[in-house]
Design goal:
Distance between the termini: 68 Å
Mean pLDDT: 77
Shape: elongated
Structural class: alpha/beta
Number of strands: 10
Number of helices: 15
Radius of gyration: 29 Å
Low-confidence stretches: 1-39
CATH superfamily of the largest domain: Response regulator
CATH class of the largest domain: Alpha Beta
Largest sheet: 5 strands, parallel
CATH topology of the largest domain: Rossmann fold
CATH architecture of the largest domain: 3-Layer(aba) Sandwich
Order of helices and strands: HHHHHEHEHEHEHEHHEHHEEHEHE
Strand order of the largest sheet: 2-1-3-4-5
Helix content: 40-55%
Length: about 375
């Protein structure tokens, strides 16, 4: 079978990847400078189109999954599974790679497909006696599994007269006749295994780069005292949400929060107690907001919340619930008093004026000032339209 050569179109398809990888648009703390700059996507740009698409699913991983994938990467040997092979064929294959093949499946049933999907191999070797449409459908269905979309498949055939040797399926990386002598067949398998190892190394390198970038973003965008996003994270998330409502016509809420008489807390109980109050308030804000909301600490005793997809009445209900929850909570850092109250300026931002952060932040800040002037421990709200 003649060796397939890459066309100029294939080379062009491999360059370049988009500025923002899938899933980065909504990543917390991903500002324009970072998304336009060095994201590590240059690693993908160095690869062919097929290899690039093999690694693209890793760009979607959230931080915890990213760490887990990284810690699970870098195995010494690729994991190999075989389908429809006999014991004798497996023994011959194992002699080439000098290790046993742990996943040998002669008959493919539902539970065996689940077994492969739950423990994805790096290389799947399939023996096709003759044209077998049922087996092809089985493999095609297998490759639709999310964990197996990047699986490398090698077809073994009886000889060069096989229809699979004459016309290689799109999902196969290579088709090898069993009539080849041991040296030739072993050499081809060794090359394919080397490619699998190289892919594993690339995955590990890419994961390591992504992980280091995630750690850098944590330092850049996270308040170390409370674990909330900091002012830079607020500016980034605000810009993204305001840009989104300009496109979608939705409403977003901006809430600025200030702890009432926080200086008295520091003076009475000390700054370590004040830090504990800030941490406890951060915990309440996390508990009382949704996953899609963005919660921040600007610095000092000032906090903020961005509420995407939130109408004015919904914002009022949420902010009043937060205010009551803070008021009734006993803060452990203040054993003699325990009561903390907050003032809130809440602004519903409608998209008609295509507002920017410079437009809306002073308005929300003025609402907070009114809440404190009117007696504290209250929410003052308005609309920006």
């Amino acid at each position: 079978m003649p060796e397939q050569q890459s066309t100029p179109e294939e080379f062009r398809d491999a360059w370049p990847v988009p500025d923002a990888a899938p899933g980065d648009e909504h990543a917390p703390g991903q500002d324009q400078e970072v998304s336009k700059g060095d994201q590590g996507e240059f690693l993908l740009n160095l690869l062919s189109s097929k290899s690039r698409h093999t690694l693209l699913p890793f760009t979607d991983l959230p931080r915890d999954s990213l760490i887990q994938a990284f810690l699970g990467g870098g195995a010494n040997e690729p994991h190999i599974s075989t389908l429809f092979t006999t014991k004798e064929q497996n023994e011959r294959l194992a002699s080439f790679i000098e290790s046993p093949i742990p996943s040998h499946i002669e008959r493919v049933e539902l539970n065996t497909l689940q077994q492969i999907s739950s423990n994805p191999p790096h290389l799947l070797i399939v023996y096709m006696e003759d044209k077998n449409r049922d087996a092809e459908k089985t493999i095609e269905e297998l490759l639709k599994e999310p964990t197996l979309t990047s699986l490398s498949v090698i077809i073994l055939v009886r000889d060069q007269n096989s229809p699979y040797y004459q016309s290689e399926p799109k999902w196969a990386q290579a088709v090898l006749p069993m009539t080849m002598d041991d040296r030739a067949l072993g050499g081809h398998l060794k090359n394919l295994l080397d490619l699998a190892r190289a892919r594993m190394d690339l995955e590990t390198i890419y994961l390591a780069h992504r992980l280091s970038r995630e750690q850098l973003q944590t330092v850049q965008f996270t308040d170390p005292l409370t674990g909330l996003l900091n002012r830079r994270g607020f500016e980034d998330a605000s810009a993204r949400e305001l840009s989104r409502i300009a496109r979608t016509g939705e409403t977003v809420g901006l809430v600025i929060i200030d702890i009432d008489k926080f200086k008295n807390i520091n003076d009475t109980y000390g700054h370590p107690a004040g830090d504990d109050v800030l941490r406890e308030l951060a915990g309440i804000l996390r508990d009382e907001t949704r996953t899609l909301d963005h919660v921040f600490r600007f610095g000092g005793e000032e906090f903020g919340i961005i509420l995407p997809h939130t109408q004015h009445e919904e914002m009022l209900l949420m902010t009043e619930r937060i205010r009551r929850e803070v008021e009734k909570s006993h803060f452990r850092a203040m054993p003699k008093a325990g009561t903390v109250t907050i003032s809130m300026g809440a602004l519903s931002i409608l998209p008609s004026k295509r507002p920017t952060l410079d437009d809306v932040y002073p308005v929300a800040d003025a609402l907070l000032y009114r809440a404190k002037q009117e007696g504290r421990n209250r929410v003052v709200a308005d609309k920006f339209d």
